[in-house]
């Protein structure tokens, strides 16, 4: 008998080095592509996102009008202002009061708040408060004298509305609540916009949406587009699923790894080839197996088990020859065999279902009688 021997370390390495190399090259190529093409921002209202809820179209429009758009998700970029520049703070995210104060202390000439929450308003637009109401999607007239709105004309708006302090300019509302508010806070111009969805890729071309966005965001040549992270303290009316919080880069890497695993699995998978005949080390004939079992029965004096095996074999042949069901009652079996062979039913019952023999001679006699009976069945 042979004992299986496992692979050595060298054999295992030689078998695995090629698939490991292929997998490594695929992953490395995916990482290089991601690094070369990775966006600085992602998710809803991202200037780098071409998805329906992204704002790549607006960023491209601004760049075509000589506005340098710098997208970022870092708070440090939002607190390092340059003279004569604009800061756009996108919807979403969760900054504490200290973060908002740091942004307020930065020397931004123009700050645009997209669907801001109470903390952002307290720090950057004092006197502006969310009303808790929302406007349904529809085209609306400016309803104000703000030049940026007057030039844009009708705009498709929807989303949360705000109340404004005295002296602020309010536009695109229902007469009471407004979605666009402009106010002067010291030397800084602040715009509060409750309808950022008007400027996403899917809706920028509607009505005067593009013109309004360009007029509001293009006041300075430098625009920092800051997207705070995590949940918004003024949630979007449409809600935001947890899947949208996963950066796209993570999904791309996961797909690359899955593809690499699939390639290796196909390459290393077992292939079904032609059947190969294998020479057996030892051939054991059926007669030898039978004789070996008989010797074991004889050595252990198991005449009852030997007789049971002989009778079971004979009954199997009788069932097959006479079409008797396997679960037939012994009396039915005896009656059928007696009718076919002409033997005495009582003798047949004793032969097929009787007590086990007590001596070796009786066992030999039983074996011979069963053999004669099966011969009669095969050759009636």
TrEMBL record:
The keyword Transmembrane applies. It holds the Pfam family DUF4350. Residues 47-217 form the DUF4350 domain. InterPro entries: DUF4350 (IPR025646). Keywords: Membrane, Transmembrane, Transmembrane helix. The chain crosses the membrane at residues 20-39. This is DUF4350 domain-containing protein. It comes from Kribbella sindirgiensis.
